[in-house]
Amino acid sequence: MTIEQLNTRFGAPGRIVFRQGHCGYPEVAITNKFGSAEIALLGANVLSYRPTGHSPVIFRPAKRDYNRNESLHGGIPVCWPQFGKLSIPSLPQHGFARIMPFEVRGTQYSEDMTEITLALVSSPDTKTLWPHDFDLEVVISVSMKLNLKLVTRNTGTEPFSFTCGFHPYFMVRERDGVSVRGLDGCSFIYAEDMSSHVQSGDLAMTSATDHVFTLKPALKHEFAVLDPGLRRAIAMVSSGNASAIVWNPGPGAKIADFSADDWRSFVCVEPVTAWPDCPPPLAPGDKHELTVAIQSTLEDA
Prior knowledge:
- By secondary structure, the protein is mostly beta strands.
- Helices cover 4% and strands 41% of the residues.
- The protein has helices at 3-10, 124-127; strands at 16-20, 26-32, 35-40, 45-51, 78-79, 103-109, 114-121, 134-142, 146-154, 165-166, 169-171, 179-181, 187-190, 195-198, 203-204, 209-214, 221-227, 232-239, 243-248, 266-272, 287-298.
């Protein structure tokens, strides 16, 4: 669809607006009294989120142009049908969904909520990478929180194994002053050397971090990124995940999107189905849902 056609069919003046984005693919801005978000249809990547009266919550590097075969290190990328690269080595890092164009499946809004649903379905292009029939849906809404839901449906006749996750880059004033709450007592693997540890108390982000946490069994998991530099806490509640990754590469990381000091400006807390192992295979006709709700809270001055 053209931008004009998207706005005619799915847009709403002042609430849901499509415009031209990266690589010739559209982006959409959704907004209401509580805040606004921008989403790229290429990869269903949430590029920005800003609650009303707050500074931006999501980090995005200054680089704005990238091609279809690159993955943007910023926003909230969708990692699917694998997180990382261990479970399906033939696939790109974090799978292929984040470099695929999504279609708009629907939009809706009310006084307190603005929502868009994006979809990626199996096709000859995806089957050259991964030989399964699927329907992948990403539902993104702005209310008092930023809400994301990733729904994987097996539309084929055989079960398939997969892992998936959201990869939020949370903007912070200075990484070294930040801590992550909600992981006390959880075991974790330091991915750099695969050594095993147990977290005690809040996780202080004072060095390069690539920790894969096994979460305690629960229907919902709660985390908070505590940032005294911006005098705020970013709370995240997730479901459908048994793991969480906390990541920051530190200085000297060779990531094409980043400038030399970008590592200072973000912390990633990533809800993932499971890692390094896959969850049980998804049977034909079944679905899996991964959800995340993100809310920014400011301290009193």
